[in-house]
Write a structure and sequence with these properties.
With 389 residues, this protein is of the alpha+beta class. It folds into 3 domains: 11-127, Acyl-CoA dehydrogenase/oxidase, N-terminal domain (Butyryl-Coa Dehydrogenase, subunit A, domain 1, Orthogonal Bundle), CATH 1.10.540; 132-235, Butyryl-CoA Dehydrogenase, subunit A, domain 2 (Beta Barrel), CATH 2.40.110.10; 239-383, Up-down Bundle (Butyryl-CoA Dehydrogenase, subunit A, domain 3). The protein has 11 helices and 9 strands. The strands form 3 sheets. A 4-stranded antiparallel sheet has the order 2-3-7-6, covered by helices on one side. A hairpin with a 2-residue loop joins strand 8 (274-275) and strand 9 (278-279). Helix 9 (318-342) packs antiparallel against helix 10 (354-366). The structure holds flavin-adenine dinucleotide (FAD). Flavin-adenine dinucleotide is lined by residues 100, 133-137, 142-143, 167-169, 210, 215, 363, 366-368, 370, 372-373, 388. Residues 16-129 form the Acyl-CoA dehydrogenase/oxidase N-terminal domain.
């Protein structure tokens, strides 16, 4: 068999025909609906048509993709991962829309919600008619969510919710916000309709990363919620942390999409750009960069696939998700930075995708657990010693 530069290890052989069909469908959608426009969205710092995009993603089955029932596709974890990779190869903002919708907001309701909550929210969210967000981070509380200040107190059978959440993807366009709050019973999750009195979600502007993504503050001033707004199935931090583990799994794949797009841009450029009378890809220093990028890209995809198989088998551990997120996002950002150098000055232009991917990955490096948090998770797993505090 011949050597395929875009698949040097033959990893496509790991895919079933159904897996390949999912990948090809999502790739074709992103090529048609995202790639021609995303540089412009990025430059404007907007995601125009987000509702239409969400409906199209819903029609593709990409929202809550690996969940069962309630209009969800019931796909495998590997198929969900492949979709994340293809979406992030277009832009991390689109993958973030899908991750937050499916792996955070829908996953929380699907896993911990009552039957009524599932019936109320999930079919519309799976179809992309309703957008959801997930409010854990606060202005003063990030890596240590146990210290959150947002709180809900009982008033008769109702709950009164107060607090602020920060950096919330999809916040301003959501119909439902899954908000985590301190209560007398520990941290609980609430499915908050965003048209509730006292709830607002101003958009955060002036970001230099994930510009084609809606990021918001959530403000809750005496939001009165009925007793059945609380997610009955969980109390304590394991609620939000289990959702984050699911979303991080998608990032293990997605980050390799950003890396692939940047690698392929560099490879293409290296073959055609000439200096000193020949293509720059003919210089050993450029080849060393391309070879090293290819190593990390395909090792990362292999790692993602392995974790996907473990998730499908029900044997994936949170420490293994940390392993994947830490490695793949860190390597993806390095690939984008190296690709940027191959493109020289053109590397900083929005005409090419590499700088956009590199700056997007700065957010991906931080959200869903920073690099340092995942190092500490692995450090604890390796040594048995907790170095968090
Ligand atoms: P901090 O926790 O203040 O950390 C600052 C630095 O200190 C980091 O380098 C951190 O690793 C380090 N640090 C902290 N504690 C330790 C320690 N014990 N040892 C060593 N180093 C330490 N959140 C949501 O809830 N929902 C969302 O939808 C969401 N979307 C986001 C979208 C974007 C674009 C961004 C940028 C963020 C988003 N976040 C979201 C927030 C994100 O999850 C947090 O930014 C992240 O958890 C880190 O929190 P922080 O920014 O407060 O940093």
């Amino acid at each position: 068999m011949s050597f395929v530069p875009t698949d040097p290890l033959g990893l496509d052989e790991l895919l079933s025909p159904e897996d390949a069909a999912v990948r090809d469908t999502v790739r074709a959608w992103a090529a048609d609906r995202v790639l021609p426009y995303v540089a412009d969205w990025y430059e404007r710092g907007e995601l125009p048509g987000i509702r239409e995009l969400a409906r199209e993603l819903g029609a593709l089955g990409a929202l809550g993709m690996s969940l069962e029932g309630y209009g969800c596709a019931g796909a495998t974890a590997v198929q969900y991962g492949l979709a994340c990779l293809e979406l992030e190869a277009a832009d991390s903002g689109i993958r973030s829309l899908v991750s937050v919708q499916g792996s955070l907001a829908m996953y929380a309701i699907h896993r911990y919600g009552s039957e009524e909550q599932k019936q109320r929210w999930l079919p519309g969210m799976a179809a992309g008619e309703l957008i959801g967000c997930f409010g854990l981070t606060e202005p003063d509380v990030g890596s240590d969510p146990a210290a959150m200040r947002t709180h809900a107190k009982r008033d008769g059978t109702d709950w009164i919710l107060n607090g602020r959440k920060m950096w919330i993807t999809n916040g301003s366009v959501s119909s439902v916000a899954v908000v985590w709050a301190q209560t007398d019973e520990g941290i609980r999750g609430f499915a908050v309709p965003t048209d509730s009195a006292g709830f607002s979600a101003p958009e955060i502007k002036h970001k230099w990363s994930l510009r084609a993504s809606v990021t918001s503050e959530l403000v809750m001033d005496d939001v009165r919620l009925p007793a059945d707004a609380v997610l009955p199935g969980v109390a304590g931090l394991k609620g939000p942390l289990s959702c984050l583990s699911h979303a991080r799994y998608g990032i293990v794949w997605g980050s390799m999409g950003a890396a692939r797009a940047s690698f392929e841009a560099a490879l293409d450029y290296a073959r055609t750009r000439e200096q000193f009378g020949r293509p720059i890809g003919g210089f050993q220093l450029t080849q060393a960069k391309l070879a090293d990028m290819a190593l990390e890209l395909h090792k990362g995809i292999l790692l993602a696939h392995h974790l996907g198989r473990r998730m499908d088998a029900g044997t994936l551990r949170p420490e293994q998700v940390s392993f994947g997120k830490l490695n793949n996002v860190r390597e993806a950002i390095e690939i984008c930075r190296t690709a940027r150098t191959v493109l020289g000055a053109n590397g900083i232009s929005l005409e090419y995708p590499v700088m956009r991917h590199a700056t997007n990955l700065e957010s991906v490096l931080t959200y869903e657990g920073t690099v340092e948090m995942h190092q500490l998770v692995l450090g604890k797993a390796l040594t048995g010693l907790d170095a968090f505090r």
